[in-house]
Amino acid sequence: MKSLTLVYVSLSGNTHSFVTRFARFLKEKHNIDSRLINIKDLKHETFPVKEDFLALLPTYLEGGNGLDNGDTEILTTPLRQFIAAHDNYKNCFGIIGSGNRNFNNQYCLSAKQYAEQFGFPMLADFELRGTSADIERIAPIVLKAWEAFGAADES
């Protein structure tokens, strides 16, 4: 059975809720096990992730509007540090962002910034805890990107 590693940070529980429901969906519908790594539980520890992984994170920014100002990441930086450590970013095939659409330009801005900094694609987004429809929409995108990334690794 294939196993997909999901590296994420969850502060309020919304991202954790999405990740656990997403992992259950992958198991039930695609026979894929998931290894969940919640960065919040690591207390700033890092270690090499040798397998391909997907990153997920909410957006927490300090003030501003997300265009001219207000794009300073707060609270989720341990995920950025984890991805940067040990060149883990080289095994990340994409990122999914979450946020609150009420914040307009700041919606999922952290995921967009990670994608730009590390050179992996932002695959999808969802609002707050995400819905079952979000999981069904996002799963094929993730599986296609994972397959393409793995195929690229093998060539």
From TrEMBL:
One Gene Ontology term of the molecular function aspect: FMN binding
SUPFAM superfamilies reported in the protein's UniProt record: Flavoproteins
PANTHER family linked: PROTEIN NRDI
Protein name: Putative NrdI-like protein
Organism field: Streptococcus pluranimalium
